[in-house]
Amino acid sequence: MLIFLQAIQNEEDRSRVEHIYQSYGSTMIYIAQGILKDRNRAEDAVSLAFLKIIDNLQKISFENCNKTKGLVVIIVRNICYDMLKSEKRAKSVPLEEFEEIAEDAEDTPLDCAISAESYDSVMACLSDMSDKFKDILRLKLVYEYTDDQIARMLGISKENVRVRFHRARKALMDEMEKRGVSNA
Description:
The protein is an all-alpha fold.
C-alpha cells in the first residue's frame, strides 16, 4: 500500500486514499477473501481495486461514508469476479457478440425508486437480486456514473454496461411485479 501512496503527488489525494485504506481496507480484504478463498489473491485483488480507486479518486464523494463503502465493495468484488473468470475461461460467447438490446422507453421500472414512499420496497426487491444486477443499478442510479465510467470501473465494455443495466431493470421490474410493488 505504501508504494501506491508514494506514487500520488497531491497531498490531499494521498490523504484521501489513506483514509479509504484505513476505513475500508479490512472490509475489502474480507470481501475478496470470501470470494477468492485465498489471502494472497485477496490482497492482490485489493491492490488492483486501489489502482482503480486512485484512477477515479476525483469522482468519489466522501460526503456519505455508506456510498463510499458501497463503491469500494463493488469495485473489489468485481475485480475478484474478473480474476475468477480469467482463471476459468469457459467456452462462453461474449455479450458483445449478441445483438444489442434496444431500450424500451415504456419499460422504465425505476420511476418508483424516486418516490420516497416506495424506496423501501424497491430496496427489498434489490436485496433479492444477484450482485451483478445490484451493482450496475447502484452505480448507474445511486452513484450516477456514466456508462463510460462504469465500464472502466468494472472492466467491461460500454455495450456490456448497457446490456447489464437493461437486464437489471427488467429483473427489478419482474421482482417488483411479483411482490405487487407499483411502478406507476
